[in-house]
Amino acid sequence: xxxxxxxxxxxxxAPRPAARRPPLPDIDPEPRGAAARVLIxxxxxxxxxxxxxxxxxxxxxxxxxxxxxxxGIAFYLVSGLGIAMGFHRYFTHSSFKATRALKIILGxxxxxxxxxxxxxxxxDHRRHHKYSDREGDPHSPWRFGDDWKALTKxxxxxHMGWLFDRDVTSQQKFAPDWLADRDIxxxxxxxxxxxAATLLLPAVIGGVWTMxxxxxxxxxxxxxxxxxxxxxxVTWSINSICHTFGRLEFEARDKSRNVAWLAVLSFGESxxxxxxxxxxxxxxxxxxxxxxxxxxxxxxxxxxxxxxDVRWPDPARLSAKKLGEQxxxxxxxxxxxxxxxxxxx
Length: 345
Ligand SMILES: [Zn+2]
Ligand SMILES: [Zn+2]
Fold this sequence. Notes:
Elements: H1 34-61, H2 66-92, E1 97-98, H3 100-111, H4 118-131, H5 148-159, H6 171-174, H7 176-179, H8 182-189, H9 191-210, H10 213-240, H11 272-277, H12 293-303, E2 307-308, H13 315-319
Bound molecules: zinc ion (ZN) (2 copies).
One zinc ion binds at residues 88, 92-93, 125, 129, 275, 279.
């Protein structure tokens, strides 16, 4: 990507194109160690146990109060939008430009989802797009083949097995833009503290709100553990379900699909076929009626002056990729120009 040279450059000597540095490898030379993988197991496994236990516990012991539900929904909204609008559409794909304050807010909000530091998330996801469903994709469900046995194994891999892969995506290669950003380096470095905050704050709020230790514990169970695990599974479903099942509505070079039933829970991320067909588009549910909460949040940020240069759906670009019957685009699409503009963006 860069045109830096390996050879020492004399002051009066311009870099020569012939002396380009070889491309950086996709994977870091240092593999993910056992300690890191244990941490991943703890921070995904413990919340998942809570999610599995949640319904029986609530049913049998009545350990649920409305305060915990309100706190859980609030944290789900903040961390889920932090992923969909922040980590994904802003940091990975530059679907819009943000003010410095919004950039930091999105970096912090996404970290509260406990899906890894922003630099790691962006690097992994850009590698996913580079290779989508081919060799090199960190989490393709088609990795082991396409018979039912291989696909079952692949679904488990795409959903969460890949988290324990020893391969670490190179941030130098896939996220040099954000590595060069001081604010984002700091947010990424603060990830452990933000994980502590996302787990402890709901308990503190629940305790103070109900003025009881039991209220703190109930909020910790529902609004911290259950909420974190629920969002984990929704995000992971984009990698597993939305690359296997669903509707093919746009031409893409991979197996991405649009999955309507996951749209609300995933803040619009499950319109994944459109996303792979036009990755920088700020709205993924582009057709009329395709709910996309993250796109609405970007729209709101734009109205408030916090976001600009938003890449709203471009009817001319999209009509070339649309498959099947022609359906009208939803709101936020750019108006179709009377005369086609010169190509290029
Ligand atoms: Zn993407
Ligand atoms: Zn994908």
